[in-house]
Records
---
Amino acid sequence: MSTTTTLFDPTEVGAWRLHNRVVMAPLTRNRAPDAIPTDLMATYYEQRASAGLIITEATAISPTAQGYADVPGLYGTEQIDGWKKVTHAVHRAGGKIVTQLWHVGRISHVELQPDHQKPVAPSAIRAEAQTVLIKEGKPEFQPTSEPRALRSEEIPGIVQDYRHAAQNAIAAGFDGVEIHAANGYLIDQFLKTGANQRKDDYGGPIENRARLLLEVVRAITEAIGADRVGIRLSPVTPANGIDDADPQPLFEYVVKQLAPLHLAYLHIIEGSTGGPRELPERPFDYGALKTAYQMAGGKGAWMVNNGYDLPLANEALAEGADLVAFGRSFISNPDLVARLRAGGPFNKAHRVTFYGGGAEGYTDYPTLDQAG
Ligand SMILES: Cc1cc2nc3c(=O)[nH]c(=O)nc-3n(C[C@H](O)[C@H](O)[C@H](O)COP(=O)(O)O)c2cc1C
């Protein structure tokens, strides 16, 4: 009898029983004016509820955590009420949904910050990166603004914002949260030498650069329970102009520290987010990362992402991954699970409607049934 695990086998992850191992990756879509989730967003997520788990688009934990036009937040009552529509719709359709908690740090623009203040960051180093403003209804890419370095005494307030947003997530009906520690945003900026030149307890050696991440994880797990919390890491992506001098020991330290905290899952972006899975100039051993986690007693599910299709996903499962997150293919295939099961065909995603706009390129991609 074959015991091969497939993408379509159910599994227990933390507090959840998932129908399958296909995860919808977090996807920013810039369709939340005033940072409040809309009815259209509820429809979009409900259409994708056959995923084993949905991770929402990145969601700002505070007004200063904001770095792009029309992204949602989770720090005010109207936002909680907006998200309730989304979580109820997904649950009605039999799905599970967590929200991705986000602080962009230096990946922002003064136009998006309260009182047009400078964005905050570990150090006052501007990112070689762009952000998206919406001008006359159209996305407009702009260079990020120069940030200011957070003072040491401001950091507990940031941790508190994460804790509060996690509590709001539960109030909004989410099954849990994913901590966004990837892609060159605030937590990743603290982790990596290219953005962190601090001289206090949050800069310098690895233990110091990982301090904010671990404080955030502890605060959130204390608030809502570790079995409802996952974390996303991207050891080598250059996304948003981020870089580290020596990522292998950094991330092995991080996962060893996470091991005893009993998170539901670790979500690892392999290679360059949305780009090549192998970067010759930034080699990284993901097998060694997983071994480091498991040898330290880590039992959370291992979720992989970046450029996966069905054959590659099956390979990853055979090699011991527990969950596979799909990004762009979920944008254009609301019934991605059924399409993977059927071996295709797959709708193509239209880039021009990724960021901003309305229903077009958002809720109008057909299912297999609708395509006839
Ligand atoms: C339109 C778009 C928006 C994205 N937004 C987010 C986000 O909010 N948070 C995040 O961690 N990654 C984000 N990503 C990265 C995806 O989650 C994913 O890592 C990437 O698309 C690679 O996976 P794929 O090859 O399956 O698409 C985004 C990617 C795209 C294309």
---
Amino acid sequence: MIGIDMTGRVTLITGAGGGIGGGIADVFAKAGARVYVADLEMENAKAKAGQLRAEGLQAEAVGLDVTQNEEIYALVDRMVKENGKIDHLINCAGISYNKPYMESTDDEFRSILEVNLISVHNCCQAVLRQMIPRKEGKIVNILSASSRMGSDFFAHYSSSKFGLLGLTQSIGLAAARHNINVNGICPGLIETGLGEKQGGGLIQQMSRYSGKSQDVLRENLRKSIPLRRFQSGEDIGYMALFLCSDLAKNITCQAINVCGGMRMN
Ligand SMILES: NC(=O)c1ccc[n+]([C@@H]2O[C@H](COP(=O)([O-])OP(=O)(O)OC[C@H]3O[C@@H](n4cnc5c(N)ncnc54)[C@H](O)[C@@H]3O)[C@@H](O)[C@H]2O)c1
């Protein structure tokens, strides 16, 4: 039987207090990994880790601001002390501003590049310092359909995710000679808290700017997906699990769409 068993594996997921990161945490914990549920919002990290532990799974809640290098390095040191290693890093923390390009500000551009791009570089470097001597490890970056197609409505987000695609390919090349795989996943559409703290979620903001109801917009978006359904955090988790497994040992530097057929590039 072919299956994926992550017993004995140690997984760090950033943004795991959120919608997609939470789904990824569910999948890795159910596959047997010890999951570090890291998020800026400690209460959400605690809730997710508590839910997993209540199911008899292994999870630790960690407060982490990915824009703070000293916090990243302290967490990596702690994980290595507790487990002797880190097997998987899933970079899922992210923010978005949803508004027309001409309303986008300098500060928004800087903060989104800081969270969605530069912090991923910092997390990867910190973890790779531990993975490279062992010549083993997997990194998965959560990209977006907007890593390959621009948008008037979230130009700064799209710019950060295009950058993250280039970073994923580049780190993948640097890590390949050490037997470490680095890949990205491009989710399609999942209704989560993304953008809420930055002024409003995608559908809410589209409704505000277009005057159409959220229900109409949601239905239009759903119909734009060939499989006619939104994705879930678990859908992204299953792809991440595969990419972190030995079944995917010859896959690196790739960006894989999980979007119900919405994108084909
Ligand atoms: N929801 C979608 O349709 C969609 C589509 C494509 C890609 N994505 C990407 O998926 C990832 C997860 O997004 P989501 O939809 O689950 O949104 P979400 O808002 O539910 O989750 C994002 C999480 O990141 C955390 N976070 C933000 N800034 C942080 C920081 N500085 N340090 C640590 N944690 C921080 C938030 O607290 C939140 O829990 C993001 O990278 C996003 O760009 C989402």
